[in-house]
Structures are given as structure tokens and as C-alpha cells.
Amino acid sequence: MVDAVTRQKLFGTPEIHFLNCTKGWKSWAFTLDHKRIGIMYLIGVTIALFLAGIFALVLRSHLFKFDSKMLSDDMYNQMFTLHGAVMVFSFIIPSIPAALGNLVLPMMLGAKDVAFPRLNLASFYLWIIGTGCLLLAILSGRGLDTGWTFYTPYSIDTNTGVIYATFGAFVLGFSSIFTGLNFLVTVNTMRLKGQGWFKLPLFLWSLYATAIIQVLATPVLGITLLMLIAEKTMHIGIFDAKYGGDPVLFQHFFWFYSHPAVYIMILPAMGVISELISVYSQKRIFGYSFIAFSSVAIALLGFLVWGHHMFTSGQSQVVTLIFSAITFTVAIPSAVKVFNWLATLYKGSILLNTPMCYALSFIFLFGIGGLTGLFLGALSTDIHLHDTYFVVAHFHFVMVGGTLTALLGGLFHWWPKFFGRMYNDLLGRVGCFLVFSGFNLTFFPQFVMGSRGMPRRYASYDPEFLPFHQLSTIGAFVLGIGILISFIVLVYAAFKGPRCGSNPFRAASLEWQSSSPPDFHNFVHSPVLNDPYDFDSQVYDDELDTYISREFADPTKVPPRTEPVHH
Amino acid sequence: MNWQIPLMLAQSTDNLEELRKRTAAISLDGTTVPDSALVRDGTSNPFSTEYWFPTQASSFAAEVDFLYMAVFWISLVFFVAIVGVMIYFCIKYRRKGDVIAPQPSPSHNTAIEILWSVLPSILLVWIFYVGAESYFDMRIPREDAEEIHVTAKQFAWIFTYPDGDQTAELHLVRDRPAKLILQSEDVLHSFFVPAFRQKMDVVPGRYTYAYVNPTQSGQYRLSCNEYCGTGHSKMKTMCEVHDTVDDRKNNTKWIKADHQPWENGKRTYQIQCSGCHKVNGEKATGPALNLIWGIDEKLMTGQTVKVDEQYILDSIWEPAKDVVDGFGPVTKMNSFKGILNQNDVNDIIAYLKKLKEESPAQ
């Protein structure tokens, strides 16, 4: 039983919270607080996104004109390399796990922090160093022109800053491992008493599955990049045929990491979507255990399909056949998730606010991204489509249409929690609409170009492709404007938005039991364990104008339960 | 940026020709290279094969297109169903007024969940099967295929025909299957002719091959599809399919070779190899070479290996890799890497083939 004064203290907007409890740059630079580290990560990945986004817009501007002279061939190659490398290593891989995950994961467990706060801060500093090394390739004046895949032997022959960049990616790998390790230990050891695995929000299942991949696969990337540096400096003879090595071996090593890395990018996004769909339908997620296990299945199967990047590489035909077969098995758990999300919408109470609009966009875009994967998993069609714009479009639908959309949706969902202020929902939805339509306009024409035989990484093209390239460029700018609007809406809300209560969306997972913004210690009370998808456990409190747990509410005003409690 | 004008330009066929002339310099022999993206009739209907694909110019192109369109329709049905259901639910069940609680509905249903996991699996197995079947059609060359050596280098292609002639574009004959043996002089490249739906990486230090049986004469775009450095996007040429062998002979600008490849190979053999390898069937320091082409050679490890391009290259560059039974336990041959390059090895291979052909039937 809790009185109104205590309720105000627990759930009212606090004067002192994690954002202002200490001041000065040192209080941020040396903080061990997972929320502050999460926000610093968020700022970091946003800078990386804008940087890599500008590279992308330069590329698209170049391709807008036929026979364009805007960039030299060499500059074009450098642009797409840096766009890819910065996007993949500095933005997408850390985006949801390290930024959103850091903010939310401990609080979903009712914990004060992650298991290893110092490791967490070290991870962020490694991110800075790694990204710095990547960018040193530009500052050194040499640039980088290998493509983000660093394929040998070209990466060994070229005089551009491959060593800086691969060392940067190597360091970023450690940053990723630190985060993954931290999350594994935190979820294993720091759950609230009584919070079994099947009472975890699905976002945590997906972060856990992601962390398994980060810890198991990233070391392979590390050793591969070190061997690449050794080959380049000492010619030890592993990856370059000139010295007795084999370029295909490099591709095996590289994709042994980089394919699972695709799931590092998409699994957390799927977790975010599971949360959003459920909260904004106010309905228990449909088929919890199927979604949870499909995350683990995707994580494990993801280790067995790297060869599907290499159907034309010269690997044996038998191996190619086997990789194609296993690739199709990954399609099942992904499809299961989509069907479960749809079933969650059924008879829900659907609120079409900004985060939900992003979640619905995700289903649309990931649907296309996933289904076009079928064309690439099948052998004969892949032979034709491999390394064309079709592939470019396919993975952008998954990486941008999937991960970036989910990141934005997740940010809009958790923003009021961490800043205690509400954003302008209308402008948020305008941003979402521009992101969605701009994205489709950019990448849909690329499917047509790819099928008709436009190779990727080409600085020039044949005249037949002109209209498609132009649509694509226009779309890219619309997409850029959409992201910019979302950015402005969020930043404005963080400083000037109207105050909101602790749980404006009636979400039931534990992080919403803290005040908004949360206290430095996350919770000033022991959070009450409840089922993360039992929304009936949250009741409206008119004094606080927000939703709080039944246990804390005024018993005279609590409505009866509308659904039986699940156990 | 004034984007309307080029957009309109691209719509008119006359201007297409003009634009194409601007890229014509790319072609080495000065001809205007047509683009593979040229679509067949009915370009504006996105539900037709013709919309998505260039001309079908090889024996397996139709199979690839069939699978593509099958997957296209399957995807379209699933996508329309998913998005349709999503939009319908969002309209029907959108939150109205202050009522936040949803209507009661089940939170799981094992039967339906197993059903929607298993049913798509059946379709996936079918897609895999059809894809694999046509993959083998694309990968297994016919016995009588003409063997053409393709050398890729930054940023050009050289095509060497069985008689030693060379060209800068690929010249094939309609209905005459060709096995293209690919080799790289420097970095990774990839051989890609969209009209054939065929693609294969060109890997330094290895031989790879691509197989094609052209079924329609014409000129098609041939491009490098694996990023290979600064001039990657200039590494384009064309593949011309002639109606008959005579047409090809007469209408092609040949770069004449001084000698037949096997003659060069014989000379190289006499200088470099004849000290240890005989061509009269007798065993010397090393095995005799006159009959080995194409056989299954027994190795000291007990395994057998087919004597093909890769085996010959390996034996010359890395003699310790596959030691023939009876010549072990340590090979007495030194590596010829740095002495013989891949083109020298090609000549030797041509000589080995010649020896095999000329030997009396076994």
C-alpha cells in the first residue's frame, strides 16, 4: 500500500535524475552509468550515421547525371568504401545494442547497471578509437578504396590507408565484444528475483542472441584483419596468390564473421519491433516462445550460411549447394516473427503514433528485404544477381529498412523514458513518412537495375539505367530529409518538449517503473516484477497523469482486472 | 540540378543512341557496345519477365528467368497478404477514444504457429531444388565445348581461342557451347554477361571456369562484376555471338598470335622441363607427360587427382603439393613460380593436350 506522496516521489518527474545529478564534462567522460554511456554511444553513432549518410548522398549525387564528372573514379571508389565501412562498423553494429541496449537492458532486468560498468565505458572508448582509426584513413590523405569488405589481393596491392582502416575495424570489433560479453553476463546474473527467462521482454532475448554472436564471431574478424595487415606488411603468404596464399580463404574468414554480423544488425531490431508492436497494440505478444526461440535459431543458423556470399567465388560446387540449402532454413524463423507480429495486431488496441508507424514500416520494409533474400538464396538466380544492384537493394532493405527504422522507432518509444519529455508526434510521423517513402524511392528502382544487370560499385553506367538512378538519387535526398526531421524532433523534445509521466504509453516492462528521466540508480524502490506483456497490470493514475503498476496505485481507484493474470 | 531534362532524354530512343555513343569509347575496337539492359518487348509491364530481364541469349537463361518469376510471384503473394493484413488490422483495430484495453484474443496457438512455419518451408524446398537444378545446367559444360581462355587484368579482358588467336572482346558462335577458362593477372575480377545470366569470379592463382551455350546472335554487354580497383567501372567490353563459325572468322578483328599455343608450350617444355620429364612414356626423375592430360593420377598419399588446368598449375608452382605415387616421399622438383607465369603454363597445357591427341589410342 502506497500513499499519494510516495507515488509522487516514485513516479513524478524528479528534480534530480541521471542527466543532472552530476555536472561537468568529466562526469560524463568518466561515468560508469549505463544510461550515460548509452547516450554517449547514441551521440557517437549519430555522428557516424550523418558522416556515412553524407558519403551516400555524394555518391547518389554523382550517379544522378549520366556520364557524371562530379567525382573521379578513384574518389567514387573511396566514397562507397567509406560509406560502407563507417555505416557497418561504426553505425549499424553498435547502433541498437550499444546505444539503445545500454540504455534499456539493465532497467528491463530491474538492475542498477550492467555487470561490468568499467568494461562498458571501455567499450565506448574503443568505439571512439576504432572509428578514429577508420577516419584516419581519410585524414592520412590516402583514403581507402577497397570496399568495406577489404577483399584480397586488391587490399594488399592498393596504396590507400588499408592498415589504418582494418586496424580501426579490429578495435571496433573489441568494442563490440565488450558490449556483448557485458550483456551476456548481465542477463545471466542480474535478473530480478523471480524473473525467469520466459518473463524477459523479447528485446532482451534478441539482445542476448546478438551478444552470443558478438562474442563468438567477432574474434574471427579480429584475427582475419590482423592476418590481412601481416600479409600486407610482411607478405606471409596466406591471402595473396602472389605469395602463395589464397584470396578465397580471405573471403571465407571474412564472411564467417560478416554473415553473423548481419544478424548482429537485424536481431536487436526485431527485438525492438516485438516491444513496439505489443505495447502499441496493448496486447500480449503472440507466440512469445516462438519469437524468443526464433531469435536464438537465427543466431545459431547465422553461423552456418556464410558461403552464400561466395556462390560465384570459385568455392566447390558441393559446398555451394549445401550453403544454399542451409540459407533457406534461416528464412523460417524470420517469417515466423513477421507472422507473430501480425497476429499480435489482431484485435489489439492499435495506436498509430510515431514509434508504431516505424514498427509498421519495419514490417513492410523487412518483408521486402526478407523476400528478396529468396532470389539470392536460390542458386541459379543468385549467379545472375550476385554483386549487382539487386544485392545492394536487398541488404539496404534489411539494414536500413530494418535496423535504422527499428532504431528510430525504438528511440521514439524510449525517448520520453530517458528525457522525461514528449516529442511532437505529428512531426515525428511526418519524419517517419519521409523516411519510409524516401527509402522505397531510393532502393526499389535498384531491384530493377540489378535484375537488368547493373553491377554494383560502378562509377558510371549505361544510358538505359539513367531514369532508375535518378529516382534513386531523389529518394536518397528525401530519406536524408526524413532522418534530419526525426533528429530535430528528438533533440528538440529532449530539451524543450512538454514533461511526460513515468509511463505515458502504458508499457509493462520494468524500465517503465522508474521515474522519467530515471534516477541515477535507475529505481528508487525495488521494482515490482510483472509480466512484460501484461498491460492490464498498469493502471491510470489521474494525479500523476500516467500509468503505474497496480501494486502502487490507490486501491480505491484501481479498476478490476479485465484479463486473468498469466503465469 | 536540373533533373527533368535528362529524365526526358532517357525516354527517347534517338537520344539513347546519342548517349550510348558517349560511352562508346569504352569499347576497345571502337564499336558502340550495346547495353545488356536493353529489354525485350513490353517494357512497361512490371509483371512480365521482359520487364525484369535483358534478352535471353543462353541455353539456361530461360530457366533462371522462370525461377526468378516464380519467386517473384510467391513473394508478391506473401507480401500483399502480410501488408494487406497489417493495414486491415491497423484500420479495424485502431484505438478509438479513451478505450485503451484491447478485445480479448488468444496469445498463442501452437497449431497455427506450426502451420505457418511448415507451409512456407515446403515452398522453400521447391525454390532450392529448382535453383540447384538449373545451377548445375549452368555449371556443367558440354563435353564438346570450345575452350576459350579468358585473362582478366586491371582493367581489360583478353580472350584466347584454341588456335591461339586473341581478341579484346569475346566472340562466340550461336549454338556452339563454350567453356571459358578464367584466369587473373592481378586481383579478383568477375566475368558477367547479363544476357547469358552467367557470372564467375576470376581468382588469381586459380583457374575458374564459366560455361555458356549462346542461343541468340547479337552483341551483349560483358563487364567485370567484382570490384578490382580504380578503373573497375571501365572494365567493360562486349560479347558478340556470331551465326556461324565462318562469320566469326571473317568478321572479327583478330590479334594474331605468332605461334600456336602448343608450339610455345613445346618450346617452354624443351627449355624448362625436359631435363626431368619425358614425352615418350618413360619414367625419368619425374613422370612422363605425354599421356597425363585428363587422366586420374594416383598420388603418393593414395588419393587420385584429375589432371586438369589447376593440377598442372599447382604442380608447376607448388610441386610439393601433389606428389605422384612412386616419386616420393619428397618431391625432387623445385617451384617454377616466378620463372613460368600463368600464360606460360597455359601454353604447356596446350602442349600436353596436343601430345595426348597425337598419341596412338591406348
Overview in brief:
Chain A is mainly α. Chain A has helices at 4-11, 25-29, 34-64, 73-108, 117-139, 154-157, 162-189, 202-234, 247-281, 288-301, 317-345, 354-377, 379-385, 389-419, 425-451, 466-496; strands spanning 538-541, 546-549. Chain A has one domain (4-11, 25-552): Cytochrome c oxidase-like, subunit I domain (Cytochrome C Oxidase, Chain A), CATH 1.20.210.10.
Describe it for me?
The complex is a heterodimer of chains A (567) and B (362). By secondary structure, chain A is mostly helical. Chain A has a single domain (4-11, 25-552), classed as Cytochrome c oxidase-like, subunit I domain (Cytochrome C Oxidase, Chain A, Up-down Bundle). Chain A is 65% helix and 1% strand. Chain A has helices at residues 4-11, 25-29, 34-64, 73-108, 117-139, 154-157, 162-189, 202-234, 247-281, 288-301, 317-345, 354-377, 379-385, 389-419, 425-451, 466-496, and strands spanning 538-541, 546-549. In chain A, strands 1-2 form a two-stranded antiparallel sheet. In chain A, helix 4 runs antiparallel to helix 5 (117-139), helix 9 crosses helix 14 and helix 12 (354-377) runs antiparallel to helix 14. The longest helix of chain A has 36 residues, at 73-108. The radius of gyration of chain A is 24 Å and the shape is globular. Chain A starts with a helix and ends in an 18-residue tail after the last strand. The mean pLDDT of chain A is 93. Chain B is α+β, with helices and mostly antiparallel strands. Chain B has three domains: 61-93 and 106-139; 146-251, Sandwich (Immunoglobulin-like), CATH 2.60.40; 261-358, Cytochrome Bc1 Complex, Chain D, domain 2, CATH 1.10.760. Chain B is 36% helix and 17% strand. Chain B has nine helices and twelve strands. In chain B, the strands form three sheets. A five-stranded mixed β-sheet of chain B has the order 3-2-1-5-8, with no helix packed on it. In chain B, a hairpin with a 4-residue loop joins strand 6 and strand 7 (198-202). In chain B, helix 4 (61-92) runs antiparallel to helix 5 (110-139), helix 7 crosses helix 9 and helix 8 crosses helix 9 (342-358). The longest helix of chain B is centred in the N-terminal third of the chain and has 32 residues, at 61-92. The radius of gyration of chain B is 28 Å and the shape is elongated.
